[in-house]
């Protein structure tokens, strides 16, 4: 009897081992080979991968970025993701590469981008491996969620960013900007000759953080300061290319770095939960004012009212976690992107004083020296054609977004291409927005006039201009961000003149977004009325 039991256990163990080996074989070999085979049959090739690491060794040879001369601004571009450009030169604008078991498709083909933009299927989502890695920072908020979870969040949040809603936030945007103006005026007063040398990006990040805190959470930057600080630390830690492209992500191991991320996640979530719970307690005590609903209030009411009726949440799903994840996403996206957009725009205007003066004159003429407190007239903001062109050109050359990505969650046809389940598509925006075939031979130059007739007239393929993302997953806060950027620039340019500091070092780097490694250092002086 004992021998028979021993034999049975041996058989069960052998079956278990065979099952594990089979699953590993499918995941490590058959799955990736199937994806590559489907694409190679369509003439799509790329660098040969080596088992089991794919093309990781070549990608890890990336050189650290260094400052470049402002006389040759685009020399920084090759240092961002050098392998993208090396492979593009070898294999063209559509090629396949691998990071271990993960297969990636680099896309710089306008026709395919057009099909990606027009596809509304929930089966075209965010790379799931990246969602898992970024969960401590963004959870399953709208930036990372897929399927019905994403659709539910978008339907809940989208109405809050309609033009009719965001115009009510103008006063708060103006109020936060005036605080920075007073701060900079103080620096100028204390400076010699009325010219202050300032690193502007941190102040502008503070400004847009204050705006998002007030408009979305009914609090101030001071209350959200610790949240922003912890987000910044996590952002720096999680922005490595190894994490972005999914290799060597040992997020489950209790390493020193992982323990730090887990601690920051817990601390950040505790801070946000306090804001959420304080609001719930206030609602119970005083009720809600129908005329003063911010985004947090909409979240609390929308999730609680609708989540149980939609049938989209798996059993045991923590709805409060969804509220928390959305809040984390808004804190990150709302504070960082707009501040960077203003920062890069002011740098470009400092480098092109003719355009700076043209925009300033337009602002003064439109608002007749009645700034601030004049932005509720949306028609006047729409008349700022020169400013709009400058913003569009700045977002083309130095948009905060560096990559756009999609995972194909089921086999699908996009245009002429059959894309297999599991492929991750990547768009490298700085290169896409500098493609001379689309933008012309002056694609690398700052020429706002190219947008005089709008985006459709600025290039051959307007669908390849995607500073706010593409398709159904285009940034929800696009209208909010553009309004905020316009108001901030109007107030700053009507008060200050900007020129480049001789101490400025031009070194854009990837930190989830496109950030100035050494800050943007400008010389700032007060605008005299005669300058307008």
Automatic annotation (TrEMBL):
Keywords: Heme, Iron, Membrane, Metal-binding, Monooxygenase, Oxidoreductase, Transmembrane, Transmembrane helix
Residues the record lists as binding heme: 475
Keyword check for Transmembrane helix: yes
Broad class of the protein's primary localization: membrane
Record-annotated membrane-spanning stretches: 6-25
Location of the protein in the cell: Membrane
Cofactor: heme
Membrane topology label: Single-pass membrane protein
The protein, known as: Cytochrome P450
Species: Clitoria ternatea
């Amino acid at each position: 009897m004992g021998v028979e039991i021993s034999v049975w256990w041996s058989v069960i163990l052998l079956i278990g081992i065979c099952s594990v080996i089979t699953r590993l074989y499918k995941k490590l070999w058959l799955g990736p080979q199937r994806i590559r085979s489907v694409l190679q049959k369509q003439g799509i090739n790329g660098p040969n991968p080596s088992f089991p690491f794919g093309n990781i060794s070549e990608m890890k040879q990336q050189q650290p970025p260094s400052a470049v001369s402002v006389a040759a601004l685009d020399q920084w571009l090759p240092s961002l993701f050098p392998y993208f450009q090396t492979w593009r030169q070898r294999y063209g604008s559509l090629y396949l590469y691998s990071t271990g078991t993960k297969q990636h498709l680099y896309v710089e083909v306008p026709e395919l981008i057009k099909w990606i933009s027009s596809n509304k299927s929930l089966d075209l989502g965010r790379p799931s491996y990246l969602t898992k890695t970024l969960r401590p920072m963004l959870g399953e908020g709208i930036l990372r969620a897929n399927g019905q979870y994403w659709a539910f969040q978008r339907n809940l949040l989208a109405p809050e960013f309609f033009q009719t809603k965001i115009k009510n936030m103008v006063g708060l945007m103006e109020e936060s900007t005036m605080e920075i103006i007073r701060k900079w005026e103080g620096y100028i007063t204390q400076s010699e000759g009325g010219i202050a040398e300032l690193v502007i990006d941190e102040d502008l990040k503070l400004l847009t953080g204050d705006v998002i805190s007030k408009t979305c959470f009914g609090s101030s930057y001071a209350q959200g300061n610790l949240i922003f600080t912890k987000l910044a630390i996590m952002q720096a830690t999680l922005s490595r290319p190894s994490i972005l492209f999914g290799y060597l992500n040992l997020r489950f191991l209790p390493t020193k770095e992982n323990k730090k991320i887990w601690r920051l996640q817990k601390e950040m979530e505790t801070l946000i939960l306090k804001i959420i719970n304080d609001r719930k307690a206030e609602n119970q005590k005083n009720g809600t004012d129908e005329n003063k609903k911010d985004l947090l209030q909409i979240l609390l009411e929308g999730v609680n009212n609708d989540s149980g009726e939609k049938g989209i949440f798996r059993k045991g799903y923590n709805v409060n976690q969804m509220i928390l994840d959305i809040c984390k996403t808004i804190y990150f996206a709302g504070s960082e992107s707009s501040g960077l957009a203003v920062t890069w725009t002011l740098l470009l205007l400092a480098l092109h004083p003719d355009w700076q003066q043209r925009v300033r004159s337009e602002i003064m003429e439109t608002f007749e020296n009645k700034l601030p407190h004049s932005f509720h007239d949306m028609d006047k903001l729409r008349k700022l054609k020169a400013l709009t062109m400058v913003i569009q050109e700045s977002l083309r050359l130095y948009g905060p977004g560096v990559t756009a990505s999609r995972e194909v969650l089921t086999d699908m046809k996009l245009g002429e291409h059959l894309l297999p389940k599991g492929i991750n598509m990547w768009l490298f925006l700085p290169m896409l927005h500098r493609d001379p075939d689309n933008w012309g031979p002056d694609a690398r130059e700052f020429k706002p006039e190219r947008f005089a007739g709008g985006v459709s007239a600025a290039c051959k393929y307007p669908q390849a201009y995607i500073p706010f993302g593409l398709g159904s997953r285009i940034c929800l806060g696009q209208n909010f961000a553009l309004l905020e950027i316009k108001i901030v620039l109007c107030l700053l340019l009507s008060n200050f003149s900007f020129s480049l500091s001789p101490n400025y070092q031009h070194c854009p780097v990837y930190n989830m977004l496109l950030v100035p490694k050494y800050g943007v250092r400008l010389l700032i002086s007060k605008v005299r009325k005669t300058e307008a």
